[in-house]
Amino acid sequence: MTDLGTTAPAAFDLEQHRADAEAIRRFAADVLEPIAESGDAPQTTGPMLAALTEFGLMDRILPRNGQTYSIGSALDICRIRNALAYGSPAADSVFTMQGLASFALVSAGSDDQRRRWLEPVRTGAAVAAFALTEPDVGSDAAALGLTATRQGDGWVLRGTKTWITNAQSADVFITFARSADVPGSKGVSAFLVPADSPGLTVTPIEMISPHPIGRVDFADVAVPATALIGEPERGFATAMKTFDVFRPGVGAAALGMAQRAFDETVERVKTRKAFGGTLFDKQAVRHALARAAVDLEAGMLLVEEAGRKYDSASPDRTQAAATAKYFATEAAQRIVDAAVQFHGAQGLARGHVVESLYREVRATRIYEGASEVQLDIISRRL
Ligand SMILES: Cc1cc2nc3c(=O)[nH]c(=O)nc-3n(C[C@H](O)[C@H](O)[C@H](O)COP(=O)(O)OP(=O)(O)OC[C@H]3O[C@@H](n4cnc5c(N)ncnc54)[C@H](O)[C@@H]3O)c2cc1C
């Protein structure tokens, strides 16, 4: 394990890496995407997790060594996400959330908490969710208002979380709450809240693309003292460390979607007849695709560098993660937009692959810190 709780990546072999990425892309397209399309998102989460576990990918995001659990190599997670999102953006989300929500338990949880939850989450038997955002507090997460008040030996949670991925299918919510009457990040603790806790209710929210997401109301939800993850009032730091690991992966997933849109577009413009030749004969089209190719390569270099920096516990890892997420998600949006443009009307037809990618890629510039938040982080070193 590395200093930050992730697993060191294996020595790099380019041929092996390409074969691995290709196998994951095929698995995502042939197995996972059909599951995603077979029903509504909350119902398909379980079957997708079962397939991801069988294929061995859950062992790579949440490896287990005897009784010790870690988060997989951040670099490897980026590569997996890039390949998964190429074949199935929905599968990328299902895969990632199990690791993202587990980070707090891996890095700060008690032995009992890990034993109870990490094995089922790792094997897909339980679904985990990460509950930070609230109706009144998103980007400025340190201002969160859901309260945790001591009651006897335990705590009572009161308030609302929203935009929570997996809300409907979650068995457990890693919930960030204000446990001390101190403003800002200093008063925040992390709690493990089982979804069947009395007083906890979920309201689904429909998004632009099929994403399992919802609002979670905590109406005096009582949890025992053992629900506290790590030290009291250290929860915000844990939430931010989670983003150091997983933000580069958002960039990687966005680039996976963009690569798919790009490949579809190259095929399309080479065969689409217009003006006595093909669209590819037009310099304006070729240059736009060349720009997209540069963005794809540059984005992946930044993403992989951020993954490496995390895995080597570099002091630059937060900056690198913000840089990678910012560049890769902004570039991916431009590339998918160009893909729609060069498909013409067909690119806007409901059900066309670039149409669905256009809707899917949009959220990556907002979740885990909007682009402007990444720019704030990047600008701190200037
Ligand atoms: C698909 C999806 C999945 C999500 N999953 C989860 C989840 O599992 N768990 C969870 O806790 N949350 C989740 N979220 C919530 C997400 O993290 C928030 O949406 C995000 O942090 C932004 O918060 P907000 O939506 O409240 O926007 P606001 O904070 O209201 O910001 C609105 C906009 O203002 C701009 N802005 C914000 N800050 C700055 C700044 N400092 N400078 C300049 N401009 C700024 C940005 O353009 C931003 O998009 C998810 C969101 C989406 C879309």
Automatic annotation (TrEMBL):
A Pfam match: Acyl-CoA_dh_N
Cofactor(s) needed: FAD
Residue ranges of every copy of the Acyl-CoA oxidase/dehydrogenase middle domain listed in the record: 129-221
Domain spans labelled Acyl-CoA dehydrogenase/oxidase N-terminal: 15-124
InterPro entries, per database record: Acyl-CoA_dehydrogenase, Acyl-CoA_Oxase/DH_mid-dom, Acyl-CoA_Oxase/DH_mid-dom_sf, AcylCo_DH-like_C, AcylCo_DH/oxidase_C, AcylCoA_DH/ox_N, AcylCoA_DH/ox_N_sf, AcylCoA_DH/oxidase_NM_dom_sf
Domain Acyl-CoA dehydrogenase/oxidase C-terminal, residue spans: 234-382
Domain of life: Bacteria
Keyword tags: FAD, Flavoprotein, Oxidoreductase
Family in the record: Belongs to the acyl-CoA dehydrogenase family.
Name this protein carries in UniProt: Acyl-CoA dehydrogenase family protein
